[in-house]
């Protein structure tokens, strides 16, 4: 969508941005180096008024428009369900490489189930615990030859 504001100077875009944020003409004038009277003329112009109305409508759509938000949440939930089903199919498909299936499982646990950003004390977040388990897994030699063989490190090597 092409708007006439594309032809405005950068200073005008800054004036529009500051006016949209609710700054007074005096505050805008101090920020851009014009007089408050010049700012008032610019802000009252039809082009700026149209752009401010467009910005307000966009802000409304993104923050308050409940039907749109419900629709977007429904689409997001649907996409999440589809992604979950696809991950399950891949993880349970014996023709998919075992390492890839394991990575899918780890990613699923890390991103979906244990999505904890805040430390809850103790050993850290679930992601930190999973990363430590991943480090331990690297120390354990896993080879795939006609099945899975797992050799554990000797006590002298110590896994922490």
Describe this structure in words.
The protein is mainly alpha-helical. The protein folds into two domains: 4-63, Arc Repressor Mutant, subunit A, CATH 1.10.10; 67-140, no CATH class. Helices cover 64% and strands 5% of the residues. The chain contains seven helices and two strands; from the N terminus they run H-H-H-H-H-H-H-E-E. The chain has a two-stranded antiparallel sheet. Helix 2 crosses helix 3 (36-44). The longest helix has 27 residues, at 66-92. The model is unreliable at 116-122 and 141-155 (pLDDT under 50).
What's the SSE blueprint?
Blueprint (H helix, E strand, L loop, with lengths): L9 H11 L4 H8 L3 H9 L1 H18 L2 H27 L5 H16 L12 H14 L1 E4 L3 E4 L9
Antiparallel strand pairs: 1-2
Helix pairs in contact: 1-2, 1-4, 2-3, 5-6
Q: Given the C-alpha coordinates, what overall shape results?
A: elongated
Main-sheet strand order equals 1-2
Q: What is the beta-strand fraction?
A: 5-15%
Write down the domain tally. Answer: 2
Brief summary of the model shown:
Helices cover about 65% and strands about 5% of the residues. The protein is mainly α and about 160 residues long. The protein folds into two domains: about 5-65, Arc Repressor Mutant, subunit A (Orthogonal Bundle), CATH 1.10.10; about 65-140, no CATH class.
Key features of this structure:
2 domains; elongated; single chain; 160 residues; Arc Repressor Mutant, subunit A; 7 helices
């Amino acid at each position: 969508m092409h708007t006439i504001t594309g032809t405005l100077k950068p200073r005008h875009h800054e004036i529009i941005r500051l006016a949209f944020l609710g700054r007074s003409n005096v505050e805008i004038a101090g920020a851009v180096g014009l007089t408050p009277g010049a700012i008032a003329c610019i802000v009252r112009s039809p082009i700026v008024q149209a752009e401010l109305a467009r910005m307000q409508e966009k802000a409304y759509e993104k923050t308050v428009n409940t039907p749109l938000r419900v629709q977007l949440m429904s689409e997001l939930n649907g996409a999440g369900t589809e992604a979950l089903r696809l991950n399950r199919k891949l993880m349970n498909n014996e023709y998919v490489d075992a390492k890839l299936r394991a990575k899918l499982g780890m990613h699923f646990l890390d991103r979906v189930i244990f999505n904890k950003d805040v430390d809850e004390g103790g050993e850290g977040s679930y992601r930190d615990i999973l990363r430590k388990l991943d480090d331990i897994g690297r120390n354990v030699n896993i080879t795939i030859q006609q099945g899975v063989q797992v050799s554990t490190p000797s006590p002298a090597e110590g896994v922490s």
